[in-house]
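Write out this protein's structure.
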Amino acid sequence: MSIIILKTLVNAPIEQCFDLARSIDLHVHSMKNENEEAIAGCTSGLIGINETVTWKAKHLGFYFTMTSRISEMKIPVYFIDEMVKGPFKRLRHQHIFAPKGQKTEMTDIFEFSAPFGWLGVIVEKIFLKSYMKRLLLNRNKTIQEEANKY
């Protein structure tokens, strides 16, 4: 299993950052280079507790679909999304928000395991962890940019 922990400071109040992070539309915008789209479940607006979204995206030259569910949520402090169906053996993403003066610190704790046993572990360590980190950094940059528009 791999774990990625990121902390991002956003020049916006906690409530705004919380909503930007759970916005389906902003997620699609942040993943436009991967042709990601929401194709089932909550396909636009703000996803809520126990709601699911099914994504279709092109990663590493292949199209994948993945369904995630918001398993926990405490507005505006945190929410957790977990893969219920998709290409990973396991995927869990904690989104945590804390006020820092007039800004908000977003913490991502992203845990995942690739399928295929020891071969998946090797792929995780050599390539997949850095690829997933890049996607998360890009998503957080998009949240920062969107927050600056207000």
